Amino acid sequence: MIEKVKRTITAYDMLPKASVLVALSGGADSVALLHIMHRLSREHGFLVYAAHVNHNLRGDAAVNDEKFSVALCDRMGIRCFVKSADVKRIAKDLGVSEEMAGRKVRYEFFDGIMREFNIDYTATAHHKNDNAETVVMNFIRGSGIGGLSGIPPKRARYIRPLIDITRDEIERYCSENKLQYVTDMTNLDTVYTRNKIRNILIPEIEREFNSNFVDTVSKNSHIIRDDEDYLEKVAKEQYEKLVCDNSVSVTGILSLHKAISRRIIRHMIDKTCGITDVSSAVTERIYEIAKKGSTGLTVPVIKNVYARIEYGMLIIEEKQEQICDFSYTVKVGDSVYIRELDCTVTVENVCPCAKGEKFRLPDGISEITITNRRESDKFVPKGMSGTKSLKSFMIDNKIPRGKRDRIGIVRIGDEIAWVIGYRRDERFTGNDIVISVRENQCKEVDR
After folding, report:
1. 243-318 in CATH: which number?
2. pTM value surpassing 0.85
3. 3-class secondary-structure state, position 388
4. Tell me: the pLDDT tens digits for 176-233?
5. Where do the structural domains in the chain lie, given as residue ranges?
6. Please, what is the angle between helix 280-292 and helix 258-273, to 10°?
7. Residue 207: enclosing H or E segment and its boundaries?
8. Which fold has domain 2-219?
9. What whole-number distance in Å separates Cα of residue 308 and Cα of residue 403?
10. What is the pLDDT of residue 188?
């Protein structure tokens, strides 16, 4: 067992230089992993930490798993980090399954520990049977080849040293080394799809069709993963080239092979909400609205996250809270922080060192007002002689609907003098005052 794990660690360059964090559930797989990494740490001189997440889905059983994991680490002299999370509530808030919400919580927890303590890797206890179950489950759900490539032995700072070890081998190792572990009884509940695959489908396939089915799936997933790695490499290169602020030109994404386009969409979703295992059905619906290209087309991704088409751009973003009407007054010589826009506006008399946009102040006026748009707004865009409604101006300039209430409007008296970032008003051309806008000046504000 130890020698097989060593070969896997060598083959995939998993050996920690300084330290490794072991994801510890308390089950046989993670207990065996912790024991093995602890043994290897003495041989190779790296530190071992452990992390346990209580998902609060199984009442007292979950509490007992937490206590067992902490006690085990105490006996082994290993520091254990513990997080308690209300996964049921998180899943409801995000509009995703409890499984997906739990995964998000775990990986965010592990990432945080690695950052804080400068840990090389997090080791998870995924093994050969887990890989086979994942491939079969993804195939049933209609996954692309990314899902059929199974669980990667190494992904960035996450390693799976047991990925070439079977469940039987792990249980045998625990028995031979007298390792106690907890058993999650929900693993036997065939209400869950994975449990049906584990306890019913795969055993039946092994009896009736292929007694080495788990090995066969594992070998095939390695082959598929090689293809997937190449496609991912190409997709990441195109993502860096085409995607900006999580939006991409419809023309640009449609010019690529569909296999690459789908992957770019998945990267955009991951960037927006940290979900990596979105279904192929969702990515397909997003690709279809890109093909149609009509402004206003929208596809839900998860709760509060949407993909939409705006003026030739595919945008994936969280739905922002609606901004209420706001109004700030700034006298010449003063500054004001505008919370809704997260920027500071300064108004100064014109002088050689002042930087910003110059405007004329009518007689008797010594201040400006900054608001968001109003329903009946009109102004005279610089370069034009007649008035234009602000609504028409924003449509003509292809400003996305979600951004229109987040654009500052400078008003002098009762008139628009400047649509910040877009166009000044012809009537206020002059050199009386300078208005400057600095973004992100107030970091302590609750976003």
Report:
1. 3.30.465.60
2. no
3. strand
4. 999 999 987 776 666 678 889 999 999 999 999 999 999 999 999 999 999 999 999 9
5. 2-219, 243-318, 327-439
6. 110
7. helix 202-208
8. Rossmann fold (3.40.50)
9. 13
10. 65
